[in-house]
Amino acid sequence: MTNTAVVSYEIIDNIGVITVNNPPVNALSQALRAGLQAAVTAAQTDASEALVLICAGRTFIAGADITEFGKPPLSPSLPEVLITLENSRKLIVAAIHGTALGGGFETSLACHYRCAVASAKVGLPEVKLGILPGAGGTQRMPRVAGVKAALELITSGNPISAAEASDMSLIDEVIEGDLRAGAIRYARDLVESGAPLKRIRDITIDASLLEPGFFENYRKKLAQRARGQIAPDRIVSCVEAAVRLPMDQGLQVERDLFVECLQSSQSRAMRHVFFAEREAAKIKDLPANTPVRDIKRVAIIGGGTMGGGIAMCFANVGIPVTMLEINAEALERGLGIIRKNYSITVQKGKMSEAEMAERLQLINGTTAYADLADVDLVIEAVFENPDIKKEVFAKLDAVCKPGAIMATNTSYQNVDDIAAATKRPQDVLGMHFFSPANVMKLLEVVRGAKTADDVLATAMQIGKKIGKVCALSRVCYGFIGNRMLGGYGRQAQLLLLDGASPAQIDAAAEDFGMAMGPLAMGDLAGLDVGYKARQAREAAGDKIDPRTHSIASALVEMGRLGQKSGAGYYQYDPQTRARLPDPAVDALIKAHAEKFGIRQREISSDEIVARLMYPLINEGALILEEGIAQRPGDIDIVYVYGYAFPSAKGGPMFYADEVGLKNVYDSICRFRDEQGAEFWKPAPLLEKLAKEGSTFAAWAATQE
Ligand code: NAD
């Protein structure tokens, strides 16, 4: 055959070696598909005895070329190419390194044998983009790995290691040493031992191994986990088809459901999140080659809820951390919580004792600032008190080496004021983690007025290294996320006064796809947190409308602090922690409505959702106009990764575009007329775009 730019072929030791080379990740572009099909077809009649499919560069075919999504299909389609591979008269060995994901792993499943290096990872992550494997993955995987394992893998979308894949028979041979030489040797051995041409399509699944009602039960379980998402449900239908129907009919079911998912608004939203996440990592006015500072040692000031979690993030990637506390007792408490958190992970079987010991060894405690002289990055996570924070920064300024980056994890304080407590404001910025910091994916990187470019670039890079999704914010009260949340929380309170019950409000938010409704969330975080924050604001002279907190404050004053005191908006079952509606709370709400002269009424779920979501959108529009966020997509990332906004709705700004900005704007004007301008003031940018019939996405394109 003739070699193309992306697919080449040579015969070594009577084995035809097909090499794919489509940097950077060997995505399945049209040229790759066509080249692969041509190579396998040509090899049928040459002197080779068997074929090896291997990739150049850092990985096997990592997946589909998602830039082709939403465009007219280009021939040959991947399913067609895979039929050619599977029907090859010469056996084909896929040789995997790096990550074989999605279409990449499906390609290997159409081969007759799979070998891999031990560091390889394989998986079918399509569900994370709101779609399903559309090139036979749902049909071939259960035939090899079994129905249950295949369902887990495809509905979670999480990749597995070569060793796990080998245990599930998805990989036939793990290769030590050079993959290319090992794969050729393996193919030779197969030929010489007369190994059969193993076509996965020829395997029949034994349905009698599944308990009655298995698929229905699985669907129910998934419905709780993947609230309202269609792709996981359709994956179950595909796997069910793999059990019940012959291969070709199963493939047809998969194709039809793939197209349904691909065309859904959920998939559009999830693909938006995918691209927005990558875009958010880029700082518009920073050249890509901005230098970064080396981060070898980190210090955390404050070992409370946040400090401990942040310390774990660094230890988890092998970076030594020094945690500083006010005294030995507080330090021991902080380190104790970290130890407990790791042991829970060990108990769950997700970490070995040895790994835990390794990580704990990387976390040291101190009460002396002098011990921080060598660190490259300090993250402050002490009490949310501006004076304490400034004092800490002045001390850091005195001991830290020149060039050390100093970050604050403050939720609300002014980063520029904190920077001014040092003589090096260019080295200061905000790194705002979310609770629990070792779990939540979002990191808001807050750019102070004087923050140096390389400090910002370093923060974004180290954020990525510790597994966070970073989004840049400028300085304002609450930064992007918490600032937007203000109106959401206020509306939850006003909805209670207007006649919606806590259960009704939370159910509407949860049916929309939020992981937890606003009142259940308040109970989880502790109602005293907001109470204390309001007290501080009022002490500083802020006037807060009593309608926006009188119920929450009354609950705190009754000792109902939320889950930690066993009751808040709900009562909590001490054993199961299940939330139960409480007539005493209903009576309290009624009494407060009467006090404010509010006549309670029936409120629809649609109204609840609009009143909760539209304040996010309106504040988001202000944040864009003020240049606090770089792009609407960055705001979406903040909400999806920091506030569990449903990725299947794409984030508040994407959702606004889907609803139509005119509809959002008209509703906000109506709410303003009903509830007053103190609660609803349409953002000028929203008004402008709504009147032009435009979208946030179109506006963003004009700003790049
Ligand atoms: P916390 O009360 O759990 O922990 C604060 C810790 O700081 C305590 O252990 C305390 O002993 C220690 N500390 C106080 N003053 C100190 C000092 N001068 N030197 C050294 N240590 C000192 O508080 P937290 O929830 O971890 O919050 C810490 C910071 O993170 C706050 O600024 C908060 O706004 C922010 N934050 C909190 C959350 C959250 O959900 N809890 C989320 C994001 C950001």
Features:
704 residues; 2-enoyl-CoA Hydratase, Chain A, domain 1; eight-stranded mixed sheet; 49% helix; binds nicotinamide-adenine-dinucleotide
Descriptive overview:
- The structure is a single chain.
- The protein is α/β, with parallel strands linked by helices and 704 residues long.
- The chain is 49% helix and 12% strand.
- It has three domains: 2-262, 2-enoyl-CoA Hydratase, Chain A, domain 1; 298-477, 3-Layer(aba) Sandwich (Rossmann fold), CATH 3.40.50; 482-627 and 630-703, N-(1-d-carboxylethyl)-l-norvaline Dehydrogenase, domain 2 (Orthogonal Bundle).
- Strands 12-11-10-13-14-15-16-17 form an eight-stranded mixed sheet, with helices on both faces. A six-stranded mixed sheet has the order 1-2-3-4-6-9, with helices on both faces.
- The longest helix has 21 residues, at 605-625.
- The protein is globular and about 85 Å long.
- The two termini are 45 Å apart.
- Bound molecules: nicotinamide-adenine-dinucleotide.
- Nicotinamide-adenine-dinucleotide is lined by residues 301-307, 324-326, 330, 334, 381-384, 388, 392, 409-411, 433-435.
